[in-house]
């Protein structure tokens, strides 16, 4: 209570909360205890209720404040005040307290959210006068009122108490006008974009309304601003529109033709757009933007899925012509009209065999497998038409060889197309937490086809380096896959850079890399060495345990993820130096390593009951059916006090997941079980063994120790030092 002398109370959890509040009020001589409530004084200032009172920890600082019902009533009246100052302050306070679900329920029960909708609907079209942005007053009444109104509305709707479906078209048009406004405050536009993203993801009817109203050209212009937060919110709405369109009609071409034409074209077709305004902007790409770029990449690549899953139809005239164009582009065709049918079929079969088709009499059967289906035909015809010289050189060079070392173009192309589909994850829905995008994707309109053109020539080069025959086909494809994945993992920003790197990674380099990796994993299986390993394990395991605890003491940044929309809120968790308390709390985006004192929430390690992972986690059970395999692999929870209370995590990477689950197992006195621990233990054991066996290089280690000789018949050869001293 402001101005009152603090009280140290023993909170009896068996007493009703109203009785506890009455006792506190009586000590301060306050009447009307029903008008007061307890609230956390630090961190997230949540109201204490009967449902969450068991979360109170020893030493928690609480404050006596207005009851949520009374607070909701006062703010409800305040935002209707005729005094603009009172109205603005009430809305500002409302935006701050609406994050609490107890208050939100009270305010919504008074139909307060409808009042906020009305304020938005009654707003003027132009919130700011026609002034340059530099002259906009920071505390101008109308824009601040609108900013607080929209923020409060978003926080209230985030609790999921009321449905988005009840919003009117007038409200939607007003939000759209805020986004389309050129002279509007960026903060208002950010919140408006945030609200519309949630609307699109929550309702198909709202999606159609927003798609009809939004000016996509203006929305795209927000991607060109220097304000990264506004840029990210605009990108989030674009991705929500694209994903919802795909889920609604399963076809971006039909359901979202306007969006595809106006959104995908400028973002993907024009390389400098994404490079200059997002990837190569002044600031680095944040986690949120990286996720949206990954989603955009997935959505765009998945447009190829229908072709990938469609087999060639031998009765389709267009497909037959495309197939024969491969033959005609490289072989000099005689006047086929003058040939008999049998002669023409024989000639075609011979040429298709030179092209590398397995079934040369009916090559369409080679393209009947899905995937890659028609996508393999598309990549081959693209290569033949875009790079005719390279295509002719490939086919003629291999068709003229008679030493069984010819590389079959068609068979290689079909398998290579399938390999690229698997590497680029074509046909897989985007993950909610994925952020692994390829910058090269945004520098090229037809990425798959251009990658194919580079990689098919790489395949031919690798084939010759390996001096491969038909029996070595699978081995060559494994090497080519490794060349592609290793090169893409280096994040090349252009096709030219990719081409240079992948060609530099020749077969001999792959062998060197494999040999190096094999040496790291190699272990000696001699029994004495295995026994030495067992003796070294306890010491090395203790080293890993200490590393895990040190990592927990340093702490990790985690991201909050909602089932309805991707949140940009972050929280940090770290272990105290004495390994007795876990501290956690919300932090800002730019925070590096917050101090323990700034993390208000804490859980004593002694109160932790169990560590749960994957689908056993409470937050995974709540979102059953929505989580992906990737999210399940990164989820873990700790239960404490009684098992229904838990702290839920979703790690940003598999490495963080392993570090934290290992560290928590150490705190609980259990064995570490992650694959990272096993890998690190093997590496440390291998290094320690090699160091100890340096002196035994090239010395064979016997499987059994040499036998101990029998003792001599007498020990007369020993010198008696005691007698010598006398």
From TrEMBL:
Pfam families: ELMO_ARM (PF11841), ELMO_CED12 (PF04727), PH_12 (PF16457). GO terms for biological process: actin filament organization; cell motility. CDD domains: PH_ELMO1_CED-12. Residues 318-488 form the ELMO domain. Signal peptide: none annotated. Residues 550-669 form the PH domain. Involved in cytoskeletal rearrangements required for phagocytosis of apoptotic cells and cell motility. Acts in association with DOCK1 and CRK. Was initially proposed to be required in complex with DOCK1 to activate Rac Rho small GTPases. May enhance the guanine nucleotide exchange factor (GEF) activity of DOCK1. This is ELMO domain-containing protein.
């Amino acid at each position: 209570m402001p101005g009152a002398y603090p009280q140290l109370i023993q909170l009896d959890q068996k007493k009703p909360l109203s009785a506890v509040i009455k006792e506190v009020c009586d000590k301060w001589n306050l009447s009307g205890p029903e008008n007061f409530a307890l609230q956390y004084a630090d961190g997230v200032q949540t109201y204490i209720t009967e449902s969450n009172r068991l979360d109170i920890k020893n030493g928690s600082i609480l404050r006596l404040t207005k009851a949520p019902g009374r607070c909701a009533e006062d703010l409800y009246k305040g935002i209707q005040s005729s005094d603009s100052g009172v109205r603005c302050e009430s809305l500002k306070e409302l935006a701050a307290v609406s994050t609490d679900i107890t208050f939100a329920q009270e305010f919504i029960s008074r139909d307060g959210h409808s009042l906020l909708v009305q304020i938005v609907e009654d707003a003027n079209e132009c919130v700011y006068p026609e002034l340059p942005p530099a002259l906009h007053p920071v505390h101008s009444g109308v824009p601040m009122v609108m900013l607080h109104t929209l923020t409060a509305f978003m926080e209230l709707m985030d609790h999921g108490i009321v449905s988005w479906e009840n919003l009117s078209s007038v409200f939607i048009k007003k939000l759209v006008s805020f986004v389309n406004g050129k002279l509007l405050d960026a903060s208002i536009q950010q919140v408006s974009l945030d609200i519309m993203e949630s609307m699109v993801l929550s309702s198909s009817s709202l999606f159609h309304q927003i798609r009809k109203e939004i000016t996509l050209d203006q929305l795209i212009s927000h991607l060109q601003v220097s304000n990264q937060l506004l840029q990210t919110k605009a990108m989030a709405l674009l991705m929500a529109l694209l994903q919802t369109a795909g889920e609604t009609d399963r076809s971006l071409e039909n359901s979202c033709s306007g969006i595809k034409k106006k959104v995908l074209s400028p973002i993907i077709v024009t390389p400098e757009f994404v490079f200059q305004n997002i990837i190569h902007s002044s600031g680095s790409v944040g986690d949120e933007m990286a996720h949206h770029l990954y989603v955009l990449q997935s959505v765009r690549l998945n447009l190829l899925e229908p072709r990938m899953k469609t087999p060639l139809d031998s009765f389709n005239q267009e497909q037959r012509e495309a197939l024969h164009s491969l033959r005609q582009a490289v072989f000099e065709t005689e006047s086929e009209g003058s040939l008999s049918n049998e002669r023409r079929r024989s000639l075609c079969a011979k040429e298709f065999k030179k092209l590398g088709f397995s079934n040369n009499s009916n090559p369409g059967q080679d393209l009947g497998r899905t995937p890659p289906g028609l996508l393999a035909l598309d990549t081959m015809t693209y290569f033949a038409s875009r790079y005719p010289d390279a295509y002719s050189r490939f086919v003629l060079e291999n068709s003229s060889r008679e030493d069984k070392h010819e590389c079959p173009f068609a068979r290689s192309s079909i398998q290579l197309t399938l390999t690229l589909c698997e590497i680029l994850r074509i046909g897989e829905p985007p993950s909610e937490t994925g952020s692994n995008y390829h910058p090269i994707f945004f520098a090229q309109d037809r990425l798959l086809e251009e990658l194919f053109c580079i990689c098919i020539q790489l395949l031919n080069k690798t084939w010759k380096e390996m001096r491969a025959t038909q029996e070595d086909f699978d081995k060559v494809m494994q090497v080519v896959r490794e060349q592609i994945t290793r090169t893409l993992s280096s994040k090349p920003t252009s096709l030219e850079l990719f081409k240079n790197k992948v060609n530099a990674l020749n077969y001999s380099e792959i062998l060197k890399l494999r040999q190096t990796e094999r040496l790291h994993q190699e272990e000696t299986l001699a029994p004495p060495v295995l026994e030495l390993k067992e003796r070294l394990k306890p010491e090395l395991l203790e080293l890993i345990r200490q590393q895990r605890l040190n990592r927990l003491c340093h702490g990790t940044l985690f991201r909050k993820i909602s089932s309805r929309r991707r949140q940009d809120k972050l929280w940090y968790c770290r272990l105290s130096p004495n390994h007795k308390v876990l501290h956690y709390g919300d932090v800002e985006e730019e925070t590096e390593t917050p101090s323990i004192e700034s993390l208000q929430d804490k859980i004593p390690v002694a109160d932790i009951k169990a560590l749960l992972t994957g689908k056993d986690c409470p937050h995974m059970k709540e979102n059953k059916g929505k989580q992906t395999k990737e999210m399940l692999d990164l989820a873990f929870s700790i239960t404490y006090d009684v098992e229904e209370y838990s702290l839920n995590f979703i790690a940003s990477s598999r490495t963080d997941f392993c570090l934290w689950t290992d560290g928590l197992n150490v705190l609980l006195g259990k064995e570490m079980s992650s694959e990272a621990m096993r890998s690190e233990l093997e590496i440390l054991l291998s290094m320690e063994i090699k160091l100890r066996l340096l002196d035994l290089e090239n010395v064979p280690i016997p499987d059994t120790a040499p036998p101990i000789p029998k003792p001599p018949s007498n020990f007369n050869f020993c010198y008696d030092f005691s007698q010598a001293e006398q």
